[in-house]
Structure formats: structure tokens, C-alpha cells
Design goal:
- The protein contains four helices and four strands; from the N terminus they run αββααββα.
- By secondary structure, the protein is of the alpha+beta class.
- It has one domain.
- The protein has a four-stranded antiparallel sheet.
- A hairpin with a 4-residue loop joins strand 1 and strand 2.
- The radius of gyration is 16 Å and the shape is globular.
């Protein structure tokens, strides 16, 4: 078991190490679509790369998510075969959002440094594919709102 301070230190070390090992400017919040952002997520049990829809207007979230649903077959066949679409994803804050994500399918814990390298490689490979897809279909996605 880790103390709060030790856990916080490990989380900080995980993300710092990732940034130093793979220094790349990721798209993340710079999608130029309000409320749409890419994220890396990692905790004590899992890691994932996701595209979140958190527009302040619910109708915009719905329209954007539906636009991505219309591209699902392309995403799965050409970019991310293990992608999951979730229109009712509950965050730790209990807020419900729409999320498209790819989970890391190996054992992982942010507290176990032995799992970090595989996770970093998963992050890079998966986010690269997500970004390639997004850049290819960006104009189509933006048409939703």
C-alpha cells in the first residue's frame, strides 16, 4: 500500500518519464472543437487513450458523438480495431460524458514501474492512430455543429 504522498510522487514520475521518453506535441486539447479533447489516462488498475466529448451544450455533444459513430467502421478497420464507444461513461466525479477509447489490454498499475514501458508504447501507438484518424476526418467531424 502506498501513502498519498508516495502515490502522488509515482503519478508525477510516471507522467514526467513519459514526456521525457516520448517528447512529442500531442493534439490533446487543441482539436479546435469546443469540448472535444484527446486524453491519456492511467491509474492503479488501467490505462487508456480516449477522445472525450464534454461540450457545455448537450446537443453539441450528441451531434459530435453521432458524427463519430457514423465513422465507426472506418475507425475500427483502418485505425483502432479495439476502440470502444461509450455514450454514458461515468467519470470519477460522477459526471456522465460520451467517450471513445482504447484500453490498454495488459497488466498495468501506475504504482508498478515494471508496467510503465509497455503502457508508454501503447500510448504512443494508440494516440498516433487516433490523431491520424482525427486529422483525416476533422472537417467531416466539425460539420456536426
Amino acid at each position: 500500500m502506498f501513502s498519498k504522498e508516495e502515490s502522488a510522487r509515482l503519478r508525477k514520475e510516471f507522467w514526467t518519464s513519459f514526456g521525457k521518453s516520448f517528447p512529442k506535441k500531442w493534439l490533446l486539447y487543441n482539436t479546435k472543437i469546443k469540448g472535444v479533447s484527446f486524453k491519456f489516462k492511467a491509474d492503479r488498475k488501467k490505462a487508456l487513450v480516449c477522445l472525450d466529448f464534454e461540450h457545455p451544450e448537450e446537443i453539441a455533444n450528441e451531434l459530435l458523438y453521432d458524427q463519430l459513430i457514423s465513422l465507426k467502421k472506418i475507425v475500427e478497420s483502418e485505425y483502432l480495431p479495439k476502440v470502444i464507444y461509450d455514450d454514458c461513461f461515468e467519470l470519477e466525479s460522477h459526471k456522465i460524458i460520451r467517450r471513445i477509447y482504447v484500453p490498454f489490454d495488459k497488466q498495468f498499475s501506475i504504482h508498478n514501474k515494471n508496467t510503465w514501458r509497455d503502457c508508454y508504447e501503447f500510448f504512443v501507438d494508440t494516440m498516433t492512430q487516433f490523431e491520424l484518424f482525427f486529422y483525416e476526418y476533422e472537417d467531416f467531424i466539425k460539420q456536426a455543429i
